[in-house]
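Hi all, long-time lurker, first post. I run a small reading group and we've been trying to get comfortable going from sequence to structure in the token notation. Rather than ask abstract questions, I figured I'd post a concrete chain and ask someone more experienced to write out its structure so we can walk through it together at our next meeting. Sequence below, copied exactly:
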Amino acid sequence: MNHIVTVQDAVTTFADFMEPTNAELDAIEREMPVILADVDLLDAYIVTLDRTPTELDNRRIRRARRRALAARVALLNQDAGASLPGGAA
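-- Answer (accepted) --
Happy to help. Here is the structure in token form:
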């Protein structure tokens, strides 16, 4: 007879090395505007899943798409500016 058992230790305990590092938390914080803009875009799409989008829905999707793109551009510009040595000549 084979007994089926659960592995409680692996499910409920977390070692210290499994926690996010400070660098990972900082990266998440830097990316938070992009994440929130993507959530807004998904919300705009979800509203239109079960019906034909109205003009108001289309405008909401376009605005959310522009905000998501602007957030990504801002993040890329922030990262590029931080990684360049020196300054503007």
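A couple of things your group might point at:
Helices lie at 8-12, 22-47, 55-83.
The mean pLDDT is 85.
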